[in-house]
């Protein structure tokens, strides 16, 4: 690098650039936060869905599954499982675990009661209503 | 208090150590030892989950995949934090040309962090996760059950306290010492790390906003403030091993981190394509994140350039090798593999596939694991009272470098091949297969990944062994 380009020039680019782009990011964050409700007008965040989210979190579902593509990659995408399988299948599935099929990937039995299962399904229904700009490419997630 | 020349020291030998400039730098040693210990634990759990990928019932129900994965990723974060803290305690006194403000506080902090970390892992393995959540106050403020942030509330609070104690100690040292660019960038990075961790306490019921702010920890760490820490650590070691003029090295450092934040902050948008956020993020996220490889490329050029222009032959060649390796592997893992999936039109098909795991492995290893190992390689001999290790020890350390690094390349390529199959069968096909059916077609790649995992573990054992190799000191 040429001698006329000094360390203090580099430092000024760093401080100026960082502050500038962080402020833009904050502005975009405000805009996004305000746009989220209308962008996701179809998503019903009911009380049951809020309780279901707690169940999702405290059973570490994201330790194996993705939810809208985020989480772990060991087990199927669940953001759209409500559409792919439907509520009754999901509840039956949770009760039937583990499959104990030798060699197959195993999912634990969480011993959820009926009310908890309903809440969990409400949360998965809510997730499937989020406006993901058409992701995933197909129903298999 | 401020001139801590009579402060208590952890290692009795340190009092006769003429290799370190300030006695209090010795507090870095237990941090580095703990980092390596936890690194071993991380890899053991990596092997468990790698095996469960094709032998699905392995250790079930004793250790389900999700539990072991959480141990794998959390140990990674914690050992890197131990590494950054050790680096801070060594680097700041040296740069500031004075003793650490309080070595005693540094040692207390070490034990608090280690015990809290160990208890958390015991909790993960010994209790059902919902029970752990319940008894640790998750009902008061739900923060658990999200990737990398699985820790109980009390552990998260503990991490904040540990970080504050650490930052207080270093900031007090810096305030009354010499202020170099390297030390200032290091401190900015570490403060940023602590500040963005506070977003781990933000967990809105609205899933879109939950995800939005989750990335303020994960992305703004690894593609933001951690790069400042990495740059400062690399610059520090390069000043030492090459003897190149500090002005030149610091100019590079500022330019690199300028590019990091100019591209990386808005680059967060590459995670906002599909999570329920407005469509404009597809354009913004694609453009800015496509430029994120630039600072990583500069890091590579920087490392090679400085070594080429070196003014001295430092006897610690292993440290130089790690520094060059960090430059190359961080560019490959973060720059190239990150770029592969970063444009929204590509990410639409690769989002949440094995490509993400491939990139995550090479980037975390190439950038952060390697920069910590660079720092350990440079400082540990000094902390043990010699300028460099014996030729025999360095030879083993360099072999370990190659085995671990090539193993990560193998893991990355196996997972990339897995991703190609996964994307074509499950995402691109006109008659897509289900997730589980698709996995059946990928099994050989998971076997290969596990094989390279065993190689990685072998390399790690060689690395650990290199600390116990004695022999004639190289001149
Ligand atoms: C050292 C720096 C980096 C590290 C440690 C890192 C690590 C990671 C990790 C662990 C994930 C997965 C997160 C999760 O969902 O659990 C991820 C995702 C991602 N990273 Fe990076 N990354 C780095 C730099 C980059 C760069 C420079 C780019 C772009 C050029 C990039 C592009 C991406 C993208 C697009 C995703 C999302 C993948 C998906 O949609 O599934 N990363 N990164
Ligand atoms: C023996 C070597 C290793 C094996 C077999 C292994 C295996 C695995 C497996 C199976 C996963 C879970 C993927 C999923 O979610 O389905 C994982 C996740 C992860 N591992 Fe490793 N790992 C190894 C070494 C490492 C190393 C050396 C690092 C970094 C220095 C690392 C960092 C990570 C990260 C960041 C994740 C989360 C990835 C993401 O969310 O995209 N692992 N590992
Ligand atoms: Fe990112």
From TrEMBL, chain A:
Keyword Transmembrane carried by entry: yes
Assigned keywords, A-Z: Heme, Iron, Membrane, Metal-binding, Transmembrane, Transmembrane helix
Membrane-traversing stretches: 12-30
A matching Pfam family: Cytochrom_C
PROSITE patterns: CYTC
InterPro entries from the UniProt entry: Cyt_c-like_dom, Cyt_c-like_dom_sf
UniProt feature coiled coil, ranges: none
GO molecular function: electron transfer activity; heme binding; metal ion binding
Domain Cytochrome c: start-end pairs: 47-128
Protein name: Cytochrome c
Organism of this sequence: Aquitalea palustris
